[in-house]
Amino acid sequence: GALLVNERIDREELCGALSPCSLSFEIVVENPLELYSGTVEIQDINDNDPVFPSSQARLEISESVAAGARFPLESAQDPDVGINSLQTYQLSANPNFALDVQTRVDGSKYAELVLQKELDREEQKELNLVLTALDGGSPPRSAHVQIHIDVIDANDNAPVFNQSTYKASVRENTPSGTLVARIGAYDLDDGPNGDIVYSFSSHTPAKVRELFALDSATGELRVKGQLDYEETKLYEIYLQAKDKGAVPGVAHCKVLVEVVDVNDNAPEVTVTSVYSPVPEDAAPGTVVALLSVTDLDSHDNGLVSDVNDNAPKVSQDSYDVYVPENNMPGIPILNVSATDPDLGRNAHLSYTLLQGDTTFGHLFSINRENGTLYLLTPLDHEDQVEFSMMVQVQDSGFPPLATNVSVSVFVTDLNDNAPVVLYPHPNTTATYADVVAPGTPAGHMVTKVVAVDADAGYNAWISYTLLQATDPSLFSVGLHSGEVITARQLREDDAPEHTLVILLKDHGEPVLSTSATVSISVAEMVKEVLTDLTDVAPANDPRGHVTFYLILAVILVSAAFFITMLSVGIFKCYKWRQSKELYNSSRSTTYRTPGPLHHIDAVRGGFTPPSFYHQVYLTTDSRQSDLLCKKPFTSSPLGSRQGTIRNGEPGLYHQIVGTTSRLPTPAE
């Protein structure tokens, strides 16, 4: 039953960087039947030295680089694990640089040079340093690399990355050439000094360079090799951007690439037969075989899989957010909360802002991972009071399910606008005074100050206060109306000219104010005031022409009105005299019966068509009666009198009959 080593064991060859390193086996014991599982852990010994990729490293550093700048160095590799792996770095003594040892996510170490004292090319053109890598063995093993630093002049602007750390995720078994991330940097210099070349940092492991490719011109990081989640779940890639100046400026960033597990491993079933063949008289319950099932995939890909049959659930369907105007940019204003009862990727949620309005992209942003809504720029209540948008919460299942949430952002008002005076106009160059007559009693409104405030509510409520006056006892100002009224009766000994300075304040916090100046003249007649204003008004007052045209227009309108009224009077007088003459003529005429009708001659004369005939009956006082006209007919010119209407047809033949009897009614 002894377990022996069959050949020399090399832990680095069997397990590489995996720790702990173990080998599993199974032993079957018969009579009685038993199955034993065992594991042999291969312990590491410090049998490997750290190794640098090259024996010498060369750096070019400008003398204008400020203290505190960092320069990544090539990392040494040690295939041992645990305490026997690479533990630290040491730097030879020098007055300018210090060494800072950093730890990656996987526990490996890398070193960076930190400039403590600024370089001076005129004092020293180059420096030679020695970097030593040490593991934790006993005794420790080490490796050395010579660092040659050239101190040169460079352009004064180095490239700057948009962000120091980029995050991306890619599915394992992704085909070569798939875009992983796009890094970006900018350089304020012009020409070659502003052209940027992207590359891997010097301490990027060789394994990473084999799996990923970086476009030096565009900064696109793409898959180059075959990714395997079961081998490595996270890659920490260090990249740099360097311009093309004589002394190139360099910027560094980090890309964290998460490998997403794909269900690319089928479950493995191991069957161990015990009885072969099985006797026909075997009793029920007899063990026939032992089975074990394993799956190399992780999480849900290694279990009974979940179905994405649940959409994300939000805590509420809509949100109302109130934000004061003039806010600080970049502040969080809301956190959209959602859950998904599914498992694994089916429950992984991402938040997206659905931008119905293209301008929202410049105002709002949402964190895809946690649903925090940020306000990017200051808002103005006077510009827009409300913003409405939709936030979509989507899981990572296939197909993905999503839920939309309505978000309304209301901009609350702050007192950021002072009152604005509309009257009297504050920017006028001429002086126009309001006029009040001597002896005016108290309580008389002389003028009114008109102002507006662009704010809302209490912030726009304006109060008026008399700040300064020629005679403070003579005038007062309405607190909320702005009306300037006399506080007492004007006396003969009061000054002829008064200047009032009125303070206008709103009721916001803090209070904003402005002032208005009102000029008031005390005069008996407007002519006196106009004389005074002529003395102080500018020589070329553009409103003088307007006054002239207004006076001319009033004169012309008055003349036209007088002529019209005179014409109407003459016409009325003429009509009255004509009717009077007709009345006198009718009273002198003797009564007589109507003679024969001669409408046929009129028809033949072409005055009216033969189918029209009107017969009119008038009394001796017919000027005070209505004219009754018969409708046209065709049967007979002497037809029935029925159908008479109260209107007349010009140009038709009428026969006038004088009679003392009443007018016939329409029915007659």
UniProtKB/TrEMBL annotation:
Membrane-topology descriptor: Single-pass type I membrane protein
Subcellular location: Cell membrane
GO CC terms: plasma membrane
InterPro entries: Cadherin-like_dom, Cadherin-like_sf, Cadherin_C, Cadherin_CS, Cadherin_N, Protocadherin/Cadherin-CA
GO BP terms: homophilic cell adhesion via plasma membrane adhesion molecules
Domain spans labelled Cadherin: 1-52, 53-161, 162-269, 315-421, 428-540
Superkingdom in the source lineage: Eukaryota
Keyword Kinase listed: no
PROSITE patterns: CADHERIN_1, CADHERIN_2
Transmembrane regions: 548-571
Keywords: Calcium, Cell adhesion, Cell membrane, Glycoprotein, Membrane, Repeat, Signal, Transmembrane, Transmembrane helix
Molecular function GO terms recorded: calcium ion binding
Main location: membrane
Protein name listed in UniProt: PCDGK protein
